[in-house]
Amino acid sequence: xxxxxxxxxxxxxxxxxxxxxxxxxxxxxxxxxxxxxxxxxxxxxxxxxxxxxxxxxxxxxxxxxxxxxxxxxxxxxxxxxxxxxx
Length: 86
Hints:
The protein has about 90 residues and is α+β, with helices and mostly antiparallel strands. The chain has 2 domains: about 1-35, no CATH class; about 35-85, no CATH class. Helix content is about 35%, strand content about 20%. The chain is built from 2 helices and 3 strands, in the order βββαα. The protein has helices at about 40-55, 70-85; strands spanning about 1-5, 10-15, 20-25. The chain has a 3-stranded antiparallel sheet, with no helix packed on it. Helix 1 (about 40-55) packs antiparallel against helix 2 (about 70-85). The relative contact order is 0.10.
């Protein structure tokens, strides 16, 4: 890992000859200067993970796809269970 700036890091795997840049610790770049998305970003991250899994398992066909409503409901309920306190 190489620090490029306060919010940009460069990661490289020499064995695979692969690299990527990570900006704002993986959070939305437009929130890098003070504004916060708080725990809500966890909803987005969870949907990305579920979608990536679906792609890796060839659950989705070629073209534009979306995560199924049932899975989104599970993500939302898990988020509520973790982050909402009464």
